[in-house]
């Protein structure tokens, strides 16, 4: 099984499929690389990279404190291990915060940024409460409850629900608590003007409590900003609206990324 080694000796599990422009997907805490199982058909056009964040899924953790910069270094380790120079980074939900930090910290490693249900900071009552609920559940090691909640919310089939449920249970609850805390306090808003690559925002049309973030991105980001709403969708876009998302991603990369770098390679 493929692993990338972080300098602190943590092993980061990853999978890669296909050839072409690399897309690296970043999952929210606890959900693991299986979050993007339904994005694998994109491997017919692009190189798909998924991973388990440290302390999640098959990745271990040797650090006593989890920080956003530490997680970003894990992403860098995976990119180096695979041997690609630049990636389109795609983050879902809180994984989008990691994607933003990666793009801001390593602009020379990024071709484009895609955020599914993304936000630049936690500034709404409902979103803050979601994070605090996650911190509480992790603190009291309520992993069975969290596994059921996440898997049932993200699944259309019983088989995938069972797979996701099992994967969430693999998460180290202490790591999860740190990750939720980092996500709660993360803020890229004042640095968004530093983004140097095209940005795609994908929101569920019914995911109302994150819609206002598009205004922040539009105001702060100086490069191209595409915004797409998926009709009928709430927050769980990669798992429940994969056909729509995959078409949106493919179209964005062909129009905004490959057209500027001379095609795939």
Automatic annotation (TrEMBL):
<feature type="domain" description="AB hydrolase-1">
    <location>
        <begin position="23"/>
        <end position="160"/>
    </location>
</feature>
<dbReference type="InterPro" id="IPR000073">
    <property type="entry name" value="AB_hydrolase_1"/>
</dbReference>
<dbReference type="InterPro" id="IPR050471">
    <property type="entry name" value="AB_hydrolase"/>
</dbReference>
<protein>
    <submittedName>
        <fullName>Hydrolase</fullName>
    </submittedName>
</protein>
<keyword id="KW-0378">Hydrolase</keyword>
<dbReference type="GO" id="GO:0016787">
    <property type="term" value="F:hydrolase activity"/>
</dbReference>
<dbReference type="InterPro" id="IPR029058">
    <property type="entry name" value="AB_hydrolase_fold"/>
</dbReference>
<dbReference type="Pfam" id="PF00561">
    <property type="entry name" value="Abhydrolase_1"/>
</dbReference>
């Amino acid at each position: 099984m493929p692993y990338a080694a972080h300098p602190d000796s943590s092993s980061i599990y990853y999978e890669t499929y296909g050839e072409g422009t690399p897309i690296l997907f970043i999952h929210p805490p606890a959900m693991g690389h299986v979050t993007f199982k339904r994005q694998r058909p994109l491997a017919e056009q692009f190189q798909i990279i998924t991973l388990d964040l440290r302390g999640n899924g098959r990745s271990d953790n040797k650090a006593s404190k989890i920080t956003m910069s530490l997680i970003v270094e894990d992403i860098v380790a995976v990119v180096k291990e695979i041997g690609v120079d630049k990636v389109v980074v795609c983050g879902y939900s809180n994984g989008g915060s990691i994607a933003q930090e990666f793009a801001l910290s390593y602009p020379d490693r990024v071709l484009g940024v895609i955020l599914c249900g993304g936000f630049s900071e936690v500034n709404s009552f409902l979103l803050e409460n979601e994070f605090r609920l996650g911190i509480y559940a992790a603190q009291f090691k309520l992993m069975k409850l969290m596994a059921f909640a996440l898997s049932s919310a993200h699944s259309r089939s019983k088989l995938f629900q069972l797979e996701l449920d099992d994967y969430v249970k693999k998460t180290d609850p202490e790591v999860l608590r740190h990750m939720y805390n980092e996500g709660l306090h993360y803020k890229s808003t004042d640095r968004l003007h530093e983004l140097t690559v095209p940005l795609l925002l994908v929101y569920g049309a019914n995911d109302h409590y994150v819609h206002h973030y598009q205004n922040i991105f539009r105001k702060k980001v100086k490069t191209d900003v595409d915004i797409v709403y998926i009709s009928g969708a709430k927050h769980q876009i990669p798992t429940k609206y994969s056909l729509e998302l995959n078409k949106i991603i493919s179209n964005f990369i062909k129009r905004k990324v490959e057209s500027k770098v001379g095609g795939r390679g």
